[in-house]
Amino acid sequence: MDELLTLTRSFEFSPYISILELSYILASILFILGLKKLSHPDTARSGNLWAAAGMGLAILFTILFHKTKAENGTYEGIHNIGFIIAALVIGSVVGWLAAKKVKMTAMPQMVSLFNGMGGACAALISLMEFPKMQNILAFHGATSMFNGEAIAILLGLMIGGVSFAGSMVAFGKLDERIGDIKSPILRYVNLLFLFLLVGLIIFIMASTPVKDNNLMIYILALLALLYGVTFVMPIGGADMPVVISLLNSFTGVAAAMGGFLYGNQAMLTGGILVGSSGTILTILMCKAMNRSLLNVIIGAFGVSAAGAVQSGDKSVKEISLSDAAILLSYSQKVFIVPGYGLAVAQAQHLCHELDNLLTSKGVEVKYAIHPVAGRMPGHMNVLLAEADVPYEKLLEMEDANKEMSSTDAVIVVGANDVVNPAAEEDPSSPIAGMPVIQVWNAKNVIVMKRSMAKGYAAIENNLFYHPRTRMLFGDAKATMQKLVSEIKNL
Amino acid sequence: MNDILQFFLLYREAIFIIILSIFLGIEVISHVPSVLHTPLMSGANAIHGVVIIGAIIVMGHAHNLLSMILGFLAVVLGTLNVVGGFVVTDRMLEMFRKKKTQK
Asked: In chain A, which residues have their Cβ closer than 8 Å to the Cβ of B35?
């Protein structure tokens, strides 16, 4: 009871701060419910809107009601409101336009870009808060910076910086502006960077705060950026979705550091929620490919891949367009297996046209969707939905595999690793154990491909040499176009 | 040892929230179908844009030119994350809704 009395006496009541804190609780609830709804297909869209509403609420109430205790004991509200609103408007317009204009195929790199922006924002906050904190500590004659605020600032800077630089590299890779550098040396360079970063953070915290002595924090920022680049650089382009998901959870943690710093519950819960759910999502994505996260990060893919399959004397059989047209038209059941090649060539609409054409000839057409086909899980579903392919025609891998033996023809459009029999037959293959679509069980397989180039896993695909497989070389869109007109002319 | 215990006592509320949020995040996400991995990642991406609140607070108490410029930049970047993130996610999910109405 005594405690309660002292509490009421020392508690400085401010209705504005109460309202602000209430809005943060509400925002946190909206984030949680939004995320929960996002994980069910039926409610996903409203979940996104709920989370967005929570965000809008938190932003608005922060501008209106946020108060900081100034040195003279009075409460100070938010200044520079004009500039803040200007920045909000600029960010909103640019973000809105970018998100609306981007093609569906380029969605993954867009997510990566936005993620990087969040990381940079967190890093900038730390860059501004560190000098303030150091000056206050120096003024009070502190001998070291061992406190929670310093940890939050320094970790926020490090994680935000890594996330920003890493996301930019991931963006460049997905946009095919940056190639892969698969050098084993980078692995050691990365370890070195990580040690340097952690060491520097401990060094800064142990050093005596000196007014306006900010050199170390800039070095830390620079190191974090460099580490972000070397961290993502050696990871193959096909693994970028996993990397983006991982960097996404990093940014979440960086945001939570800001929340810790300001004692801001909305930032804390929102950030940690993304940090933990992002980590789980990353692990789920790895599981869908039957690989461990460590395996993805170290980048074992493609390194040991070389000698797995000897392709010396095997030959591929090509199929002419007219033969392909006849084969498809006189089939009972046809499966289309789309891959990233379809997305790149933007052939989803033609795919649907082919589907319609064959259906009108009495052929049963279905799509077999591998969970990691394309550059991101669900990528194919989104693309085919854009082309108005009905939902019930899209079969998940397990269901499609059950129907394969009763299928007359399979058309593989720009997919490679997800139909590679090596995953089941060759235990030494880098993709061994990854579930694949068993197209070779169908009576005929037509592989539409630009060239014999390897897929993203950079391994040979024995499917192309399978007795039931015939190749149809060319750009997916052009070939599909020709195939459609060929069938029309039959 | 004493320092660590003192640290824990000082920040116990934040530590509590962090631990509970970690479990909550794991619980909320598990059992998500793989079709939704991408939109979910994108939605989570938008949620960590909450870092913008920090940017607004910094900007709101900025007094010199350098921190004004950096703060302005931080608010712009944070807004990009929030607005872009939610709009991209909505566009992805719009595709799913279209499929449903066709059923």
From this structure: 41, 371, 377-378, 381
